[in-house]
Amino acid sequence: MDGTLIDTEPYWMAAEIELVEAHGGVWTRQDAVAMIGSSMDVSAGLLQAAGVALSVAEIADALNSSVRAAVAAGIPWQAGAHEALRALHEAGVPLALVTSSFEVVAAPFARTVGLFDVVVSGDTVARPKPHPEPYLTAARLLGVDIADCVAFEDSRSGLASAVASGARVVAVDSHVVLDPPAGVSRTSTLESFDLETIARVAAGETLDLRDRQGGARPV
């Protein structure tokens, strides 16, 4: 969700900076970028190390409340994301939202969008990303083989989760430039993906779409 479909990373970063500074600490953009895609437990631990004298639950509540309010004011779609979701939904492709964000943020977003068949949030699994459990859970709930799934990820933690699950994977270089393993497709924007391109990835092709002027090219 965050960074791949909607540009909420600035919201998370602002919430983190505000929280750390309220406790007398310093939190830089570099700190925030390094934490993109991390589970809430990992994120809370890093914020505690930066001086936030709150429990993990209190940190989660503060961050989630801030981001939820920002998203409620208007969904900041990443370029091409909403169009890709609508095209897949209209083609009858089952869709799962698999996110490290907690249900309190993910569920309202999913309800508003109205296109997802399944939502797996970071607090509804025992082992969140980078463990493959979130993606395996999504495939199970959809009733499909994970090998028939295409996962889109924009963080190192999420990429590791998706690859380990056995899904076909597309790395989206948005806020972080990823270094995916062999067999992972790449793009800089979901504007590059139409149904035909997604079908090619699902069929086993590995594509590099970062240079959209040259079209999709095998790697």
UniProtKB/TrEMBL annotation:
Domain of life: Bacteria
InterPro entries (alphabetical): HAD-like_sf, HAD-SF_hydro_IA, HAD_sf, PGP-like_dom2
CDD domains associated with the record: HAD_BPGM-like
One Pfam family linked to the record: Hydrolase
PANTHER family listed in its UniProt record: 2-DEOXYGLUCOSE-6-PHOSPHATE PHOSPHATASE 2, PSEUDOURIDINE-5'-PHOSPHATASE
Name recorded for this polypeptide: HAD family phosphatase
Native species: Cellulomonas dongxiuzhuiae
High-level lineage: Bacteria, Bacillati, Actinomycetota, Actinomycetes, Micrococcales
